[in-house]
C-alpha cells in the first residue's frame, strides 16, 4: 500500500486513512486555499507500526521521496545550513483524542541551520527563539521530559534579567536558553539533542505513533468505545512563522459563534506569535475583528476564505491560521464543536440559507443536545459575579454551600442543606459525598477525570478542572483569581453547561425549550426566540419522519397530562405500586396479615374503590390513547414497616406490659416475608400467583374504571401488563383470571371490555422463550432495567454506589448499562425476543419501558430492532421523539 500522501492527493472523505486534520488539509489544498505544502503519513502505517513494533517496509523511502518533492517545491532542503526548510510534525487521528501527542514545530533546526534561519529571516532573535522552541517541544512530547524543567529555565532567565514578559527576551537570552535546554535533554536522556534533521523528523513521527497508546488516550478510547486499532495519521507540513515581527501573527477563527450559533466574526488573533502562545494564555489575544485594523489585507482574505469554507462544508468550521510577514496561511480547519443551543440555531440558519435539507438538519442535532437544552439554567438577566471557569463536565445549574470534604457534604445534606462539593480532584472515596452534593467542582482533571465521569454517570452537575480556582481542602476554602476567598458554608453556583462558577446564589429559571414543550411558549409568537423556533421546526420534521411511537411512564393524572403536553402518545408504563403507599399502607398491612379468606376479602374490597379512582383519573387524562397498567410488582415487604422500628416498638410495649398484639403479628409477617435477595424474590407475577385476589382486584379496578369512562362518553384504552414473567404458565393463569374479570365487569356495566393483556419481558428466560410467551401475550414491553440487572447480574440498587465508579474509571464501560442500553448483551436478547415473539404472533405490539426509553443511543437501537414504541419519563419524551426521528430519517 501507499503510506504517504501529498496534501494534493487527499480529500475530506479520507478521514479513516489520513485522519481528520490530514483529510481537511488536503481538502483545503484542493480548494486552492493557501495551505503550506506538506504530506500525510497514513493511519495504516501507524497500525503496522503498532502491530509489529516497526514502521512498514517502504514507508521511509516514500517519506524521502515526498520530502525531496517538497524540498524542490520550496527551493530549500530540510535543515539546509544556509537556507533551511523547517517542518512541523502533527498528529491527526480520525477522532481528536485527549492525551495524544499534538505537535512539534521547527523540525530541521540545529546549531548550523539556526544561523541559516537567522540570515534567511534577517532576525537573529527569531531564529534562536525558534530553535529553543524546537528543543522544548521535542523534549516534552518526543522525549517525555517534564515541561516544567524548560518553563523554569525560562523563568530563571527572566528573573535574572529582571523582566516579566517573553517579548523582552533578547537573542542572547535565547542562545543561553538553547544551551540550557540542550543540557536538560542530555541529562534526562543521556544523549545529545539529535542534530540530524531527518532523524528529528523520524523520531517525532514515531512519537506520534506511540502516543496512540498513551494511557490517557487508551482510557478515552475505552470510555468512548473508539476502536483501539484505528491508529493516527501524521502530518508533516512546511513551517510558516507567525512570530516574524508585528506584520506576522497567528489566530483561530470560527465561521459562527460556537457558543450561541449566531453569525458574525468570532475568534482571536495574536500578533508576532506562534500557535502555542495563543493556547498557553501567557499573552493576551485580541478579538478577531481587531485584525481588520492590524492587517486589512490578510483579514479580508481570511473572511473570504471563511465564507468559502462554510459554503463548502455547509457547516460551522473552526480554523487555525498564521500570517507570515503579511501573507495568510491556513493551518487547519474542521467542522467545529458547538454548544447544544448553537447546534440547533446553526441547523436552522443553514436551512434558511438552503445550504442543507431537513434530512441533513436532523443529523446536525442530537437527543443529548436537546436534553441539555431542557435543563434548568441560571437566569441570564440576573446580576452575577463570576469567580472563575473550568470545564463543562456535566450539564445543569447547581447552587449550594461550598464544602471541601465528603464527610461534610453528607452531614450537611442530611440536615437539608444543598451543598457543592469542592475538591482538587475526586477519587472513589468521595463517592458518597458526590451523591449527597447538588453539584461537584474540581480544580484539576479533564472531562475524563473521575469527577467528570462519575458525575455524568449520575446525571449530576459538574464543573471540573477549574485550574484558576485554588481549592485548598486543608484550610477548607477556595480562592478565586480575583483574590476573593470562599470559606466553607459560603454559597456558590456552578453551571455545568458553560463551566462557570459564580459567587452566591444565582437564580435558576426553567428552560424556554421546556416551556415551549409544555405549551407555555407559542413558537409563532414573539415570546419565542430563535432557539425555540429552531427546536420547533426540527420537532415537526422528526415527528413526521419517525416510525416509533413515544409513550411516557406516568402513574398520576398530573404526570399523564404533562406527558401528553410533551407529545407522549400514550402511557407505556403505569406503575401501580405508589398507589399502595401513604394512607393505604394500613390496608395493605391488613391484606398481608389476613388469616382468613374473609379478612383478605375485606382488605381487597377496601382497596378496590381507591384503585378504581386512580385509574379513572389516568384514563381521563389519556383519553383516546393507550395506557399500559402494570399490576403490582415490588416485594410485599416493601409495604411493611421497618423491622428495627417495629422491633423497638414491640420491645417497649412488652416492657411496659402494654397490648401489642397487632405489632407482634406485623413483626412476624415482616420476618416471614424477609428475603435475602428481594429483587429476585416474591415480586411481580409471583405475587399475583401467591396472594389470592390481589391481581384480580387490580384488574377489576381497571375494568370498572374503564366501564365508568365509557359510560361517561370517554374512550379509555387500558392495556393490562403482567410483570416479571419467566415462563408462559405464569402468564396463562393470570391471563385466564383477568379475562374472566373483564367479562364479568363488562356484563355488569353492559359495555364491551376487550383490552389487550400482555407481559413485561425483563428476565432472560422470558426473552429466550418469547415464542411460547407470545401465545398468551398480546404485547411485550421490555423492562430493560430488570433485564439489565438480570443479564449482567448487577444489583440495580447497589452497583452505582459501589463499584461502578471504578468500572467507569478503568473504562470497562464509558457509560453505565443502566443508563444506555448494552446493545451487545441485553440488546441481543431483545432481538431474539422480537423475532420469536413476532413469529408466534405476527400482530404482537412491542415496546420498551425501562429507563433506556429516553436514552438517545438506546432509542436508535430500539428503532433498528423493530419495536413499535418506546416509553420514558415525561421529561424525556421530546428527546425520544427527536432521536426516533433521527433514527428513521
Ligand atoms: C424495568 O424493569 O425496566 C421496568 C420498567 O420496571 P421497574 O423499573 O419498575 O422494575
Ligand atoms: Mg422491572
From TrEMBL:
Catalysed reaction, written as an equation: pyruvate + phosphate + ATP = phosphoenolpyruvate + AMP + diphosphate + H(+)
Domain Pyruvate phosphate dikinase AMP/ATP-binding: 59-284, 294-343
Cofactor requirement: Mg(2+)
Superkingdom of the source species: Bacteria
All copies of domain PEP-utilising enzyme C-terminal, residue ranges: 537-884
Family: Belongs to the PEP-utilizing enzyme family.
Protein name in UniProt: Pyruvate, phosphate dikinase
Organism: Salinactinospora qingdaonensis
Gene it is expressed from: ppdK
Amino acid at each position: 500500500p501507499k503510506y504517504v500522501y501529498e496534501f494534493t492527493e487527499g480529500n475530506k472523505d479520507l478521514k479513516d486513512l489520513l485522519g481528520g486534520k490530514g483529510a481537511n488539509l488536503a481538502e483545503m489544498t484542493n480548494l486552492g486555499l493557501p495551505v503550506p505544502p506538506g504530506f500525510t503519513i497514513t493511519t495504516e502505517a501507524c497500525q503496522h507500526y503498532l502491530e509489529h513494533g516497526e514502521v512498514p517496509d517502504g514507508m521511509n523511502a516514500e517519506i524521502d521521496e515526498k520530502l525531496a518533492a517538497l524540498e524542490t517545491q520550496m527551493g530549500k532542503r530540510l535543515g539546509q545550513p544556509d537556507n533551511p526548510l523547517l517542518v512541523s510534525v502533527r498528529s491527526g487521528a480520525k477522532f481528536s483524542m485527549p492525551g495524544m501527542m499534538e505537535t512539534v514545530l521547527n523540525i530541521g533546526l540545529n546549531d548550523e541551520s539556526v544561523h541559516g534561519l537567522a540570515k534567511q529571516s534577517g532576525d537573529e532573535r527569531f531564529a534562536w527563539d525558534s530553535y529553543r522552541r524546537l528543543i522544548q517541544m521535542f523534549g516534552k512530547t518526543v522525549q517525555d521530559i517534564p515541561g516544567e524543567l524548560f518553563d523554569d529555565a525560562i523563568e530563571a532567565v527572566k528573573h535574572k534579567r529582571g523582566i516579566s514578559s517573553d517579548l523582552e527576551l533578547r537573542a542572547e537570552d535565547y542562545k543561553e536558553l538553547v544551551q540550557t535546554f540542550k543540557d536538560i535533554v542530555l541529562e534526562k536522556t543521556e544523549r545529545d539533542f539529535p542534530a540530524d534533521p531527518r532523524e528529528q523528523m523520524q523520531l517525532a513521527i514515531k512519537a506520534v505513533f506511540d502516543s496512540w497508546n498513551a494511557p490517557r488516550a487508551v482510557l478515552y478510547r475505552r470510555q468512548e468505545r473508539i476502536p483501539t486499532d484505528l491508529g493516527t495519521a501524521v502530518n508533516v507540513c512546511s513551517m510558516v512563522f507567525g512570530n516574524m515581527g508585528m506584520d506576522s501573527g497567528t489566530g483561530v477563527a470560527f465561521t459562527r459563534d460556537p457558543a450561541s450559533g449566531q453569525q458574525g466574526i468570532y475568534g482571536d488573533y495574536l500578533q508576532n506569535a506562534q500557535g502555542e502562545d495563543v493556547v498557553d494564555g501567557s499573552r493576551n489575544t485580541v478579538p478577531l475583528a481587531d485584525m481588520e485594523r492590524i492587517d486589512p489585507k490578510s483579514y479580508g482574505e481570511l473572511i473570504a476564505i471563511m465564507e468559502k469554507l462554510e459554503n463548502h462544508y455547509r457547516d460551522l468550521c473552526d480554523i487555525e491560521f498564521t500570517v507570515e510577514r503579511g501573507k495568510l496561511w491556513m493551518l487547519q480547519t474542521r467542522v467545529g464543536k458547538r454548544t447544544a443551543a448553537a447546534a440547533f440555531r446553526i441547523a436552522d440558519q443553514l436551512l434558511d440559507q438552503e445550504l442543507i435539507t431537513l434530512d441533513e438538519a436532523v443529523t446536525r442535532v442530537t437527543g443529548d443536545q436537546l436534553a441539555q437544552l431542557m435543563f434548568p439554567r441560571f437566569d441570564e438577566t440576573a446580576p452575577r459575579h463570576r469567580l472563575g471557569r473550568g470545564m463543562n463536565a456535566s450539564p445543569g445549574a447547581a447552587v449550594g454551600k461550598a464544602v471541601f470534604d465528603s464527610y461534610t457534604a453528607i452531614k450537611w445534606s442530611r440536615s437539608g442543606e444543598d451543598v457543592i462539593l469542592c475538591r482538587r480532584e475526586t477519587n472513589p472515596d468521595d463517592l458518597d459525598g458526590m451523591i449527597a452534593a447538588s453539584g461537584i467542582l474540581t480544580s484539576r482533571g479533564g472531562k475524563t477525570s473521575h469527577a467528570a465521569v462519575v458525575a455524568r454517570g449520575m446525571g449530576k452537575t459538574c464543573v471540573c478542572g477549574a485550574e484558576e480556582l485554588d481549592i485548598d481542602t486543608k484550610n477548607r476554602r477556595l480562592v478565586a483569581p480575583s483574590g476573593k476567598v470562599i470559606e466553607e458554608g459560603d454559597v456558590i453556583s456552578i453551571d455545568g453547561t458553560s463551566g462557570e462558577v459564580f459567587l452566591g446564589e444565582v437564580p435558576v429559571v426553567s428552560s424556554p425549550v421546556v416551556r415551549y414543550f409544555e405549551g407555555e411558549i407559542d413558537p409563532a409568537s414573539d415570546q419565542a426566540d430563535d432557539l425555540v423556533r429552531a427546536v420547533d421546526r426540527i420537532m415537526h420534521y422528526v415527528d413526521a419522519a419517525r416510525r416509533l411511537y413515544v409513550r411516557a411512564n406516568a402513574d398520576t393524572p398530573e404526570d399523564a397530562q404533562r406527558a401528553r403536553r410533551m407529545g407522549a402518545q400514550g402511557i407505556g408504563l403505569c406503575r401501580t405500586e405508589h398507589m399502595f403507599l401513604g394512607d393505604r399502607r394500613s390496608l395493605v398491612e391488613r391484606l398481608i396479615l389476613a388469616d382468613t379468606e374473609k379478612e383478605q376479602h375485606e382488605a381487597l374490597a377496601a382497596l378496590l374503590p381507591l384503585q378504581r379512582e386512580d385509574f379513572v383519573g389516568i384514563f381521563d387524562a389519556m383519553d383516546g390513547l393507550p395506557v399500559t397498567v402494570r399490576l403490582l410488582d415490588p416485594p410485599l415487604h416493601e409495604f411493611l414497616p421497618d423491622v428495627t422500628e417495629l422491633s423497638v416498638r414491640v420491645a417497649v410495649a412488652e416492657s411496659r406490659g402494654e397490648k401489642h398484639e397487632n405489632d407482634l403479628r406485623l413483626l412476624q409477617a415482616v420476618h416471614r416475608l424477609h428475603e435475602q435477595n428481594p429483587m429476585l424474590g416474591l415480586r411481580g407475577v409471583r405475587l399475583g400467583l401467591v396472594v389470592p385476589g390481589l391481581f384480580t382486584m387490580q384488574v377489576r379496578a381497571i375494568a370498572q374504571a374503564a366501564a365508568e369512562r365509557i359510560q361517561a362518553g370517554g374512550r379509555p384504552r387500558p392495556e393490562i401488563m403482567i410483570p416479571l414473567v419467566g415462563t408462559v404458565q405464569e402468564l396463562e393463569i393470570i391471563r385466564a383470571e383477568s379475562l374472566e374479570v373483564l367479562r364479568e365487569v363488562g356484563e355488569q356495566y353492559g359495555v364491551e371490555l376487550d383490552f389487550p393483556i400482555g407481559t413485561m419481558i425483563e428476565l432472560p428466560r422470558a426473552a429466550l422463550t418469547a415464542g411460547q410467551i407470545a401465545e398468551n401475550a398480546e404485547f411485550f414491553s421490555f423492562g430493560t432495567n430488570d433485564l439489565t440487572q438480570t443479564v449482567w447480574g448487577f444489583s440495580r440498587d447497589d452497583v452505582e454506589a459501589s463499584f461502578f465508579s471504578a468500572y467507569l474509571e478503568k473504562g470497562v464501560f464509558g457509560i453505565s448499562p443502566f443508563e444506555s442500553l448494552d446493545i451487545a448483551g441485553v440488546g441481543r436478547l431483545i432481538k431474539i425476543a422480537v423475532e420469536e415473539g413476532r413469529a408466534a404472533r405476527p400482530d404482537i405490539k412491542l415496546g420498551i419501558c425501562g429507563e433506556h426509553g429516553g436514552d438517545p443511543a438506546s432509542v436508535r437501537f430500539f428503532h433498528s430492532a423493530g419495536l413499535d414504541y418506546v416509553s420514558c419519563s415525561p421529561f424525556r419524551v421530546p428527546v425520544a421523539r427527536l432521536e426516533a426521528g433521527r433514527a428513521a430519517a
